[in-house]
Amino acid sequence: MDENKNKSLVVGITGASGSIYGIKLIETLLGLGITVHLVISNAGWRVIKEELGWEISDRQTVLREHFQHFPGNYIYHPVGDIGASIASGSFLVEGMVIMPCSMGTLSSIANGASDNLMTRAADVMLKESRPLVLVPRETPLHAIHLENMLKLARLGVRMIPAMPAFYFGPRNIDDLVAFLVGKVLDNLKIEHALFTRWGDHSEQPGE
After folding, report:
1. Domain range annotation of the chain
2. What is the pTM (predicted TM-score) of this model?
């Protein structure tokens, strides 16, 4: 954990279904001692309320209730605060993850429309050549969705769609969520033990 104490990441949660992914990511990062700069869109708050049952009338309080017991620190930035620290390239962070990422947010990033703090922070990652990971959650996908993802992938953005895997023998939804969060952390080169990797339980010395 000591090696993570000076690390910081931006995490965005949008209005796509799957807010549980973003919450698990934040919990995991904080558990590792990493500082999280958190941005949640207005639609993201709505989905958190609908999917997780959080009482969101006092946003600062509900975040404190859920995250204050972890060793890492979090800083909540309102999505309309375009003057926040993470809106500037001179503010150093290791990278940014938007999980889940709506197609509207993805489109704004792909087309350089920095109309709120979420998309501005993502634009900063692009212009400063810092890691940017997007976790799109939509189905089916039409051509515009795919074209926007291709445009960003060609710029080096990591696309990790919210697609579950089953080779590791998941027992419940929590296992599937942990797997996807683990894949995000793999792409950020952050060590974790969220799922059993292929071959870890089947290959023995001498076989």
Report:
1. 2-187
2. 0.93
Span 67-76, average pLDDT: 96
> From the annotation, which residues make up the binding site?
15-17, 41, 102-105, 137, 167, 183
User: Once rounded to an integer, what is the mean pLDDT over residues 117-128?
Assistant: 98
Over range 169-194, report the average pLDDT: 93
In contact, 122 and 98? CB cutoff 8 Å: yes
User: Cα separation of 163 and 122, whole Å?
Assistant: 22
Note the CATH number of domain 2-187. 3.40.50.1950
CA 93 distance to own-chain centroid: 14
CA distance 82 to 87: 6
Cα–Cα dist 14/21, whole Å: 11
Q: Which residues are annotated as a binding site for FMN?
A: 15-17, 41, 102-105, 137
Tell me how far apart the alpha carbons of residues 61 and 69 are, in angstroms, rounded to a whole number: 13
Residue list, annotated binding site for dimethylallyl phosphate: 167, 183
